[in-house]
Amino acid sequence: MYTQSMDIPDAAEKGPPESASAASELANAFEARIDADGRIEPQDWMPDNYRQTLVRQISQHAHSEIVGMLPEGNWISRAPSLKRKAILIAKVQDEAGHGLYLYSAAETLGTSREQMLEGLHSGRAKYSSIFNYPTLTWADVGVIGWLVDGAAIMNQVPLCRCSYGPYARAMVRVCKEESFHQRQGYEALLVMMKGTDEQRAMVQDATNRYWWKCLAMFGPPAADSPHSALAMRWGIKRISNDELRQKFVDATVPQAKVLGVTLPDPDLKWNEARQHYDYGEIDWQEFWTTVAGNGPCNKERLATRVKAHSDGQWVRDAAMAYARKYRERTITEAV
Ligand code: 3HC
Question: Which residue owns the Cα nearest ligand 1 atom 7?
């Protein structure tokens, strides 16, 4: 899908445009394409900060998919039935795939996967705050599907219309798979809610613990979101953090009613004038503490991720050795 990345010179190789007028022509062509809601492709000229904004967002997104495998991966060996185990394995594998599409999309911007992984493993790069909370019971797996993947879809569907072609195309498949993730979580919870009082209490408890974290997942409100204005001007982001959060609340309240759980917010009520649900204050202090690396599971997640990477070194070495031998054999046979 992203093999075009092999053909594009990186930014340094391309060098600056030869004259000031050539540079302004390129900038004008870029702006005109953005204004016409067109797509920017890897071969096209783009301003440095458009490229940097994309690398930052896409690599953070890729890291979120990969780290997001960990809280649910913890439950694969403890899934309550063969059917639930098969579904969970498939879902966790999908997240790995999403990470790979996204790393590939970021590579088309001239950033290597090694650089991005180094950023993650050294703790410099961010990934979604939501994956720094523990998964205490099986109901958490269902609630992650319902609420976390539900929030992810709300945020990611508009990214299918992102102005950068490879990111937008990757998101189409990601969103289809996220839909399955959301549904499997909701269905698992519906089954639990028809079970025992203890199961219903588990679902309510998991909902209580995850609800506010999912609202924060959409990112800070406009005043504290330094990247939003430009990202929206460039068609990278299409809808603001706050608007997406509101859409998520509006879509989720009726789902909670069908499920039979209470969303843990006394201020949650329909506002006839706004035609939206009002909701209470998000604890942004807690969010920023987690984003800064001091949430309940940040250190554990990073340590698990780094260990998985170093334990997998022999697989990468073996794949490279095989590719080298295959290439050498093909060349020998050809001469
Ligand atoms: N967790 C961690 N950091 C967050 C965050 C969150 N939930 N929300 C915002 N931030 C960070 C930003 O990365 C930025 O940090 P930086 O300057 O160091 O890069 C800072 O807070 C300010 O936020 P902004 O709103 O200005 O940043 P953005 O314009 O990038 O908006 C975003 C944040 C809405 C998360 C946007 O980057 C985005 O839409 N990203 C793509 C989607 C994504 O990454 N989703 C993550 C979840 S993926 C997932 O859940 C996997 C699925 O399988 C469940």
Answer: 217
